[in-house]
Write a structure and sequence with these properties.
mainly alpha
Amino acid sequence: METQNTPFPGAAEAALLKGNKIEAIKIVRKDRGVDLKEAKDIVEQHVATHPGLQMQMESAQAVSRQGFLPWFMAVIIIDALVYYFLAGK
């Protein structure tokens, strides 16, 4: 687990701040040379011991989801238009 002797990797912290927990786990796994479960436990312990981090992660994830919706709707509309014009011929 995270100890005073092994600081949490800065790149993993940055990934968490962007809302990307999976990326943080990958970074910890590579940096520490641990298995997947242990890396996940290290990341979860780090988040649990830094109360503001969880809120920042959730906020970043919410922003990311909001950015996805307009693109998804645009793809649906384009697909519908292509279908309408190609099916009519």
